[in-house]
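pasting for ref
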Amino acid sequence: MAEQVSSLKTGIKYKDTPIGKIPVDWEVISLRDVSEINMGQSPPSEDCNEKEEGLPFYQGNAEFGSKYPSPKKWCEKPKKIAHEGDILISVRAPVGEINIAPHKCCIGRGLAAITAKSIHSQFLYHLLFLRRKYLQKISQGSTFEAINSKELSDLLIFLPAVKEQKKIAEILTTLDEAIDKIDQIIEKMKEVKKGLMQKLLTRGIGHKKFKKTDIGEVPVEWEVKNIGEICEILDNKRIPLNKEQRDKMRGEIPYYGANGVIDYINDYIFEDDLILMAEDGGYFEEYSTRPIAYLIHGKSWVNNHAHVLKVKEPNDTFWVYYSLAHKNIIPFIKGGTRSKLNQEELKQIIVLIPSFTEQKEIAVILSSVDEEIEKETNRQEQLEFLKKGLMQVLLSGKIRVSV
């Protein structure tokens, strides 16, 4: 990667085009001129299954992962097909999500498959990322956010020489591969953490004797308490602010909602280590894969969509957080148009209580894994920032590569 970046060069002459300045030796062409575009068509529901029979079926960006999409359904009688290596792009809301077909597959009407012809495929893949905002912009002109075949075919793109396309693609693909490797490391760490949590939060460290409780078998020394007993609920101190109010209070202090930070302002109502749990709009049904509670530290402002919990002594805040983060609390959720965790139900949620010393020991183990995950996540974000910057300059010709 270092050798590739060192080959970049400046001192370029430009010309004006309908989509901006580009090097004089580059062209501007329509997507149809260099590719084959295949708009998806959804098969009848009776031709689809979840038994992995037929071709994987993709109908929109919902199946897209960090790199390749993951199928939820399969189709035995596909209407439209994409081939391995085709670029998949969502043509219905949200428009412009881009991925690569990892295998031959069936595509529904929410997708289009683009097969590169007289252009380097990986170069085109990255170039389409650069033109996403334009596609999203034109899609917003219709009643239903979408783009049609003509709009996609008419998309103007930059075209350098083939050797330069290949070199640019190599640089960006190298970054993609590095980002993917870190993503794999993070996923493995999350699996390790999940296994540790399942063991440590129910079996503890070094226990030989266990007792039966309403929530399963636990060490005999542990107590069973509810949130109302171990936490002070600070909901009466919450203050919601609308966007207009927040715009007048711009700053660096986090403003929290149901599932995390939603803005930054210049004032605070809390300054402590606290646990937040969504009152409404939380990930209650997805508790096994997404946290339903999160820790906050220092100065903060919380709106009325999150419960605010301050752990009472002699309990450890981290222990209580880890006990709640992936807990199944669905039995405590009230239904309706928007699932809600009322304060009275919140107080009844059960938490296992070891000795304070054991709480700290387990919290340190889990925190150390979280720190490693955060470290890798920061590395990944730095690479993504680098890639974004390189895409802007390489795919527009502001910086040239030596070929």
